[in-house]
Amino acid sequence: MKSAKLKSSQRLQRVLAVLSDGQEHSTRDIVHAADVCAVNSIIAELRANGVAIRCQRRGRNVFLYRIGA
Asked: Is the pLDDT of residue 33 over 80?
C-alpha cells in the first residue's frame, strides 16, 4: 500500500489531531470529527508514517483507536 505523507496530507493531519488528545475514539467519532471516510485505511497510513496507534475492538462492530503503543 502506498501511504500519503503526514506532512502533506490534510486528511491524515485531521485524524491525527482528533487522536492527539490521548483518548479513545470510535470509528464513527473520527469520521464525524475529522470529516473523513475509511478510517481503518487512514490509521494504516498514519502507522506507516510512524505514528503508534492502538486499536481495540468492543462488541461486534465498534473499534476504538488511541495514540500510543
From this structure: yes
For residue 63, the surrounding DSSP H or E stretch is: strand 62-67
Round the average pLDDT of the chain to a whole number and report it.
95
Taking the C-alpha atoms of residue 54 and residue 66, their distance in angstroms, rounded to an integer, is 5
Residue 30's SS3 state is helix
Structural domains of the chain sorted by starting position, each given as residue range(s) with its CATH number in brackets: 10-67 (1.10.10.10)
Please check the confidence at residue 18 and state whether its pLDDT lies above 80.
yes
Find the helix or strand (DSSP H, E) in which 13 lies: helix 10-19
